[in-house]
Amino acid sequence: MADYETHEYDVLVIGAGGAGLRAAIEASAAGVRVGLICKSLLGKAHTVMAEGGIAAALANVDERDNWKVHFADTMRGGQYVNQWRMAELHAKEAPDRVRELEAWGAVFDRTKDGKILQRNFGGHKYPRLAHVGDRTGLEMIRTLQDHGVHRGIDVHMEHTVLAILKEGDRAVGAFGYERERGRFKIFRAKAIVLATGGIGRAYKITSNSWEYTGDGHSLAYDAGAELIDMEFIQFHPTGMVWPPSVMGILVTEGVRGEGGILTNKEGRRFMFDEIPENYRSQTADNPEEGWRYCQGDKNARRPPELLTRDHIARCIVREIKEGRGSPHGGVFLDIAWIKEKLPDATEHIKRKLPSMYHQFKQLADIDITEQPMEVGPTTHYIMGGVHVDPDTQMSRVPGLFAAGECAAGINGANRLGGNSLSDLLVFGKRAGEFAAGYARDNSFGKVDTDKIDTVAKEALAPFDRGGGENPYEIQKDLQELMQDNVGIVRTESEMQHAREQLQKLKERAGRVGVTGHREFNPGWHTALDLKNLLSVSEAITHAAIERKESRGAQFREDYPNKEERFAKVNTMISKAEDGSMQVRLAPLPEMPEYLQRVIEENR
Amino acid sequence: MNFRLRVWRQKDRKSRGRLINYDATDIPPQASLLEMLDIMNERLLLRGEEPIAFDSDCREGICGTCSLTVNGEAHGPDHPGAACELYMRKFKEGETIVIEPFRLKSFPIVKDLVIDRSALDRIVQAGGFISARTGSAPEANSILVPKHDADVSMEAAACIGCGACAAACPNASAMLFTAAKVSHLATLPQGETERVRRVVSMVHAMDAEGFGNCTNIYECEAVCPAEISASFIAKLNREYSRATLKRSSGE
Lengths: 603, 251
What we know:
The complex is a heterodimer of chains A (603) and B (251). With 603 residues, chain A is of the alpha/beta class. In chain A, 36% of the residues lie in helices and 17% in strands. Chain A contains 16 helices and 21 strands. In chain A, strands 1, 2, 6, 7, 8, 9 and 16 form a seven-stranded mixed beta sheet that branches. Chain A has a five-stranded mixed beta sheet with strand order 17-15-10-20-21, with helices on one face. A four-stranded antiparallel beta sheet of chain A has the order 11-14-13-12, covered by helices on one side. The radius of gyration of chain B is 21 Å and the shape is elongated. Chain B has two domains: 3-111, Beta-grasp domain (Ubiquitin-like (UB roll)); 118-248, Orthogonal Bundle (Fumarate Reductase Iron-sulfur Protein, Chain B, domain 2), CATH 1.10.1060.10. Chain B has helices spanning 33-46, 118-125, 147-157, 164-168, 175-186, 195-208, 219-223, 231-248, and strands at 3-9, 18-24, 68-70, 73-74, 96-101, 109-111, 114-115. Chain B starts with a strand and ends with a helix. Chains A and B meet through helix 1, helix 3, helix 4 and helix 10 of A and helix 1, helix 2 and helix 3 of B.
């Protein structure tokens, strides 16, 4: 084996978003030596883009709120396939984690009497989201980062991990490279926490940043951990579709809340065409009533534009698929029409939706007080991820922990807005705490030098094939394949097609070539991300094929209803001895009676 | 659209860099500056040349990763906004666009347009935090913050740490950055305990990193993508004087 720079830590945290930072802080506070690896710069993690807030039953605004209601809301949102223990811990511990953040200097919007203000959000019974304007994620990361830096955590910025190293069954380190110089490094560790976030970049249209290539999912899978619930991907119904540079960026639900309507190219308000039976009694019959609802008329029912995210996303897809979309492959979202209703509409829009006005003016050169926006569904969040023990966050690989979006279980089939930031804090802390404990009870393992040689050789192979396949092309083809075949509306034949095509893309990825040298080479970085993107895409496809029903975020045209036989199971993906991908259905853990009662009481 | 680009290319920290000319042809006007660089990079790769290294993350003006000087201005001519929020339609057809990294001694160039801004991290490390204990959550509502104070604090906390303030300043001063960090915590009750120590050590760290002093030129405020007011620098000066007085009077 070549002589690689080697670092040793008690706990190694991979990923420096909310979960990674919180884990690192906790482990460091427990008195062990902590190393933190991030793919980009510290503090630039994707968590900064979360706008809504942190869901925690602080009961500052409505005193009826408590952990039981939050737990019941989370389980209902997840269609009861959540891991109940994670949902329970999350609801119970989120308020403590928010107060801790406050003590570290996080700024929050305040009530008149100086308490943390909380706002309403979809699926939460009471106002529950602690927030600061629309930049809660940024404030959370800044606080964690500032609190973390003084703890003496070693930070390795702009590093990518290529493999988890094992001794026998146990995880004992990681092998990766420094993006700046392209040099390989070995990180030996007694315990490892994965906190790498999501997989959005497997899709063409996503609100996720370039770093979201499913690294943690793929690393854990390769190391022998199981992935759970991979079929559940949340698509936000309204993302920008034009211009290309901003494709996928979110357009807040607030636009529809203020009276924005969705229309197709014929000018038809298509959301009235299909209203689900169970929502019919709560939905307006005509545009007039919908408008009155948006104006605060308590006797009016909500317009169909305010139905659940998954339903709206599917209606938009139907319009586009049937040829009634907008010029750039979306539909129209029109807020300018309210001029018919309000004399000072232009000012009203600017006052109510300042960031959206700014966003479209700045990014798309569109004045939303005059013109409709073009929007389409955008890949937003994956509920699935590494299957972990709910209390300790350890996967089935000893010494390998996961937290945040790359871990799974708390959200079930669908996530409520605001539950991700609290998830990061609650389970980031737990992962850090138990990883530190594990590190204290175990010594360093022996790293597998053969494995390192193989990984290094594979990683450098693209340079030997200068004229091989272009990594950007493969990435683009993969994103289109997933977008078109394993997207919002799914069906067996399309997914089987995707499965076959994924094999072909894998073969092409094996022939990928790059030029230049190893120092900060974006082409090479893209080539190395392909493996992870392909693994998670395959896992999503397998799991989605296996769940032959529609539930939460998974909608199957060929099985449009919920099925009893899938009501109490999770899909589990793992790597077989021969390297092939295995999928199985695992029964949900039995929920204890006291929690069943909580759910009944909150029906 | 077509442009003539002059892009700073530098092999590594030690090498000498220079501006290289590129023709950027057929660029869609709705492309952002960073997307234009992506397009250029794909073309360079096809020609077997090395792509231009630059940093980016969110591309929505939230994270402060992109740190480019465009036509001599930090984050380019379209203020307020980060370089990722700069669109090609803001330029004239056929215009020459000069793209360089932020230039100051405290931010060494890593490669091409990528710089090392860890100097800012070290200023924060010197005191920009609250060292409350980890793992013991405080009692509910034990910290009450008046709404007005929280709003002022947030105006300072809005800093995304891009470093444009220092890059735009003829004195290479990072005082707007430091002022934002100090003011944010000095306004909150949580920050009170370490208020004196914080400002002194952060200012010392700032000086040690080689940043200059403020002489009220206001370039920083003009380029700040988070629109942080230079009046926070006045607050920093006040905090610093207060702290040194307290120290010298033995408090």
